[in-house]
Amino acid sequence: MRKLNVDVAVIGAGTAGLAAYRAVKAHGQSAVIIEGGAYGTTCARVGCMPSKLLIAAADAAFDARHTAPFGVYVDGEVRVDGVAVMARVRRERDRFVGFVVNGVDAIPADDKLVGHARFIDNTVLEVGGHSEVHARRVVIATGSSPKVPASFRALGDRLIVNDDVFAWHDLPKRVAVFGPGVIGLELGQALSRLGVRVRLFGKGGAVGPLTDPAVRAAAAATFGAELDFDADARVLDMQKDGDEAVLRYLDHDGREITERFDYVLAATGREPNVHHLGLENTTLALEANGVPLFDKATLQCGASPVFIAGDANNVLPLLHEAADEGRTAGDNAARYPDVRPGHRRATIAVVFSDPQIAMVGQRHADLEEGSFVTGAVSFEDQGRSRVMLKNKGLMHVYADKATGRFLGAEWLGPRAENIAHTLAWAVQMGLTVDEMLAMPFYHPVVEEGVRTALRDAAAKLAG
Ligand SMILES: Cc1cc2nc3c(=O)[nH]c(=O)nc-3n(C[C@H](O)[C@H](O)[C@H](O)COP(=O)(O)OP(=O)(O)OC[C@H]3O[C@@H](n4cnc5c(N)ncnc54)[C@H](O)[C@@H]3O)c2cc1C
Ligand SMILES: NC(=O)c1ccc[n+]([C@@H]2O[C@H](COP(=O)([O-])OP(=O)(O)OC[C@H]3O[C@@H](n4cnc5c(N)ncnc54)[C@H](O)[C@@H]3O)[C@@H](O)[C@H]2O)c1
Predict the structure, then answer these.
(1) What intrachain disulfides are recorded (predicted)?
(2) Would the CB of 17 count as within 6 Å of ligand 1?
């Protein structure tokens, strides 16, 4: 067993781990970064980037099929070549992964260890059965994995998760998608637009990350009009039969349907990778889900020299948060015990469905009843949205009754990925609705719809 002594050991060479490693090195301390899987990060290999590549192909197919209302006709068939679609997805994905791997290659060999890490005590790690790392501090940046209900195991090799989709060399014909959360909506709609027969099964009425009941209902109606989607599905049975998954479920009218699919894609949520870390060998207090108790500002676990960043801590499992948190955890690991709160930005989340879903600032579910007003706009009659025939969606903006301050927004609608930034910046700057309305709005743009919602909120604040 090889023994290593370092200032900081970072577990996981994903986005958070790489940021943590760099932050430690910036302090001039020694560090080792330990990776048990493939280099390249979840985001680039099986997450953000390949999903957006698949969606880009799907949107191209959808747009090509929907030109007629403009008086523009694509004569002949719009043909989707599944092999070519997946070849581009994997080729471009590999390019993104390549950039990350180049960055890892540039890390000195002595600073890298390959193998699964387990805690022996708070600061001693056993790695891959070949090394023992004695660190003064540790950063846990182990990411998350799909959380698949146990009953799905009956599906055997017909059960897949997001990672499997991006390894395909062709598109299958029929996929049942479970979970209309962020991953299920993005991948389910994209596969459907690429000509795959998709049925999307939800639970309890949830749609994406939305918590505002009215916006959620609008989203369910919008996606339900395009996709075969039940936000509160009643599935009676699921079995594997040769190369097929056989599902028995009740449709919207309560009729029993038996349908065969090539695959069942489980997009039923993700869980932090903390279960095989040997945390029971540490003195850290753990939450029910196995994540150590930690301070959200400093990312320190109790008073220990252990820090936790990225999807592993289960706070905001998003790429930019993983990068920020990795930096904070690495910085504080190097400073320990003089730890400091890291930089937290206003929250922003975007789902790359069509229409896109976005949320900024405080969620509707987090607001105190009676303390805020809601301004609304429907995009149905919004000028620019109608011009582009992208006039679907509903936006709710929330403002504090006492101060007029803009608190946050939830919506689905056109160009939400861009508008979300403007609104998240307004949240971070602490602007009031009146201050936002004093800003420029060009004509004709989708942001004029945002102005309508803000004016609605301003009227309610005044009244
Ligand atoms: C399909 C999909 C689409 C997504 N799209 C978006 C998007 O559009 N925008 C967005 O902001 N976010 C998106 N995300 C979320 C984003 O990918 C994650 O929030 C981010 O990648 C988390 O980074 P991380 O560093 O915490 O984890 P990871 O990048 O997963 O890194 C963790 C690393 O730790 C390693 N590891 C785990 N346990 C051990 C161990 N015991 N020993 C050694 N190594 C270990 C793993 O092998 C892994 O390499 C998406 C996720 C998915 C799955
Ligand atoms: N665009 C993005 O930024 C992006 C894209 C993909 C993923 N992500 C990140 O990854 C995280 C995980 O995404 P996710 O979609 O796996 O999780 P999620 O928590 O967003 O959604 C899981 C969904 O599965 C449903 N569900 C659970 N069990 C079910 C069952 N048995 N049958 C039917 N439905 C069931 C839940 O009700 C929920 O709607 C997200 O929270 C997000 O942070 C971000």
Answers:
(1) 43-48
(2) yes
